[in-house]
Amino acid sequence: MDYNHKDIESRWQKYWKDNNTYKVDIDITRKKYYVLDMFPYPSGAGLHVGHPLGYIASDIFARYKRLQGYNVLHPMGYDAYGLPAEQYAIQTGQHPEVTTRNNIARYRQQLDKIGFCYDWSRELKTCDPEYYKWTQWAFIEMFNHYYDTQLKKAMPIEQLVEQIATKGTKGLTAYCSRELDITPEQWASMSDKEKSDALMNYRIAYLGNTMVNWCPKLGTVLANDEVSEGLSIRGGYPVEQKLMWQWCLRVSAYAERLLQGLDKLDWTESLKETQRNWIGRSEGAEMKFKVADSDVVLDIFTTRADTVFGVTFMVLAPESKYVEMVTTPEQKEAVEEYLQQVKKKTERERMIDKKVTGVFSGSYAVNPLTGKNIPIWISDYVLAGYGTGAIMAVPAHDARAYAFARHFDLPVIPLIEGADVSEQSFDAKEGKMINSSNGEFSLNGLEVKDAIAATKKYIEEKGIGRVKTNYRLRDAIFSRQRYWGEPFPVYYKDGVPQMMKLEELPLMLPEVDAYLPTESGEPPLGRAKNWKTKDGYPIELNTMPGFAGSSAYYLRYTDPHNPDALVSREANNYWHNVDLYIGGTEHATGHLIYSRFWDKFLYDLGVIADDEPFKKLINQGMIQGRSNFVYRIKDTNTFVSHGLKNDYDTTPIHVDVNIVSNDVLDLDKFKAWRPEFADAEFILEDGKYICGYAVEKMSKSMYNVVNPDDIVDRYGADTLRLYEMFLGPLEQSKPWDTNGIDGVNRFIKKLWNLYYKGDQCLVDDSEPSKRALKAIHTLIKKVTYDIEHFSYNTSIAAFMICVNELTADKCHSRQVLNDLVVVLAPFAPHVAEELWHSALNHTTTVVDAKWPVHNDEYLREDEVTYAVSFNGKARFNITVAADMPQDQVQATALADPAAAKWLDGKTIRKVIVVPRKIVNIVVA
RNA sequence: GCUCGAAUGGUGGAAUGGUAGACACGAGGGACUUAAAAUCCCUUGGCCAUUGCGGCUGUGUGGGUUCGAGUCCCACUUCGAGCACCA
């Protein structure tokens, strides 16, 4: 029989399913290995060939590990909550659950065709109440904990309450939004509402009145990672800053641990760097500047404490709380006008508009080192959300302050020797300090680095300031004004938020009559009937954001049906965290930060055993589209082939890549493609119509989407799997080009035809030749190494070489095929399984076989050819016994008649023998 | 602007500091076939030679280290990614 992928693949997929071949359970006799893919959001468009790239890579690794004897957990599920389903629901009125369910069914169908070894009994969906019960639970736990800066971990809020009640807030070691000053007596007399408000300063999940990214078009707030350059990532709509009451997660409390944790992770440097940037640790000092003739003290943050002597003005963010305190009556009108002006601008306008704007507050601050008065300005170039929202401006050594000073004609005092500040500021942190002395304390002559340290020490001693580390990482805004998300397990009693009890969970997402905000502007849940507790208290109307459900899903897979816990201790102790995580880099500052945060929190609670979720992470590259073009001659219906298009005035038109093969257009299919092309005419070259091409994003509108189903149908899943891996290095982005798939398809056919001639199976028990043994053991060695290093493309090249060798050797040895099939099984499981049973007559599945170990014995050569070179230039070859010692190789090379020509009386300075490669003779 | 990564044939891409271009696509030539498809064989970085062996050159640019550099170091160019009024 000829190789028939349809028959083989459907048969084995059914077998695996019927026999639960890939179901795994805790087995303490075997070591575990956990391989995870970033689960997909099931979009309406289905999978294109780019999606399975990472899944195939992880599947290969999972199968490999299993063959090596590990108990491999390899699950799959769906990130089912999300905006597209909701927007579709708004347009059509169809319940998002219905569209989500349909999309999931289609995804599953597509995935099943590719032959993955997922344990589907562990499948999960984030919108499943049995799952989101534990998302809600984690939120409640976050509400009930604070972050202790001394112990560096989350602690129960009751402990904090007790401390405040007995000792007040003085000396608390709790990470907080702002420092409070409450005595035990005051605490005792506070109302429930006041206490609740106070505690919101400490809770890890808290209700905060914070500046948020509000996207009017989407009608919801967005997290920082969902916004780029002032536009929403989804949709690209403008985002404005707005003060709103929102649920937040105190991710910033974990900034240092999130940063430190990166060091021990096996992730790519670039991804770790991205996270480091995002966390944005910066060491500096917080300093106090008294306001002249007032009790107000400005706290500012600076990384350049050394430049205090050059401060010529102060700047406050327009949103800063200080603005009100320092504005003088004379300046009130001007300040208010400026604040109005700033407010009108969107975040994006504020960023794009590089014009220097600002207004004088009327007040002066006192430089703590010089005692001089310096004006306090207000400008939107200072951000309210970073540091203290107030800065000391040193125009000589900061570009933004310089621009500001020049615009408003403020003085510039250079502090570094030789720095020319007549045209621009000198921002570099190097050079010797000048102009920096007040008689008592001097930095003059010091290097910048030493000056920073000296100043920090001095201001701490004098109580003017303190060393402070700031982070750019902000708390995560956790509320979304949407329908299709997890409801908050929160209700309000006299305006005080209360958490539901665990036994009341899951709090099910209610039905609504429409998915839009209510007329009064409440979120869609405002439409739900009886959205209150049984005691009649109103329930929170916001829902949770997308990252809520994806933050701990990897834990749930290890114990997916547990009704009593997110994950049992037993399951967690066995499966631990993810050994290998594969997914796109687009989640670098979103999911991968939140998940680490969530994990660390659960670790603090003692619920799980590891303080990092993903030990090793591989980012597969994006598969881009490869679009094809036809060239229509202007105002005609005639199309000219790519090579001749320059002779005409043409317009390029995208053409469906599925009717193009090797850039040659199928003319009949083109005419049938769209009615307006039915009577198209063509100008051909060499009898063919050659299309142009370009690499673009894979998308419907470019007609360059390739559906994996079509590939599987035509070539088979094994070919698809091999080809996706053969395209290039896993981590690299590359365009999908169906040209070339014939190569790997031919490989499978060659393999098949090596062992089958018609119906006759050629496998025999003959002793394999030396050549065959060398071929197969080279393969085993190479593939083992390559899988460990995720270099799948070179593995596949190794398979091709091996099969070519075996074909040339006419090797039908059972022993050789046995090893070949096992190492092939991770890559092309269906054809491997078929050969395993039909050709080798095994009764177990290849899945349970044992990974072979290569034997160096077979790789050893009898003779080795060395290239003999003189001064690095290759001249001739010598062939000697493989085990000849190096000095003899040298002697042989020098004694060769060909050497005489090059030696020719010259002095030999050195002879270098590189084992099995080169003999280099250095002559002078 | 700062940080990170990349640059190799017509194309995708191989090369622990050791004969650059594995493997595959495409292209050209040939075999089989009435023909096509499929399959198989040969050639395929460039230039020169091709009655022979072969010779020269070549991994974005310019330097350096080394017996020897695609690989290491320095400077530059281009492209990609991340961050970006973060004080």
Tell me what the structure shows.
Strands 12, 13, 14, 15, 16, 17 and 18 form a seven-stranded mixed β-sheet that branches. Strands 24, 25, 26, 29, 30 and 31 form a six-stranded mixed β-sheet that branches. A four-stranded parallel β-sheet has the order 2-1-22-23, covered by helices on one side. Strand 7 (205-215) and strand 8 form a beta hairpin. The chain is 34% helix and 20% strand. It is of the alpha+beta class and 924 residues long. The structure holds one RNA strand of 87 nucleotides.
Provide key terms for this protein:
globular; 924 residues; six-stranded mixed sheet; 34% helix; RNA-binding; seven-stranded mixed sheet
Biggest sheet, in brief? Answer: 7 strands, mixed
Number of strands: 37
Q: Radius of gyration, rounded?
A: 35 Å
Low-confidence stretches: none
Instruction: Kindly report the oligomeric state of this protein.
Output: single chain
- DSSP helix fraction: 25-40%
Give the class from helix and strand content and strand pairing: alpha+beta
Cα shape = globular
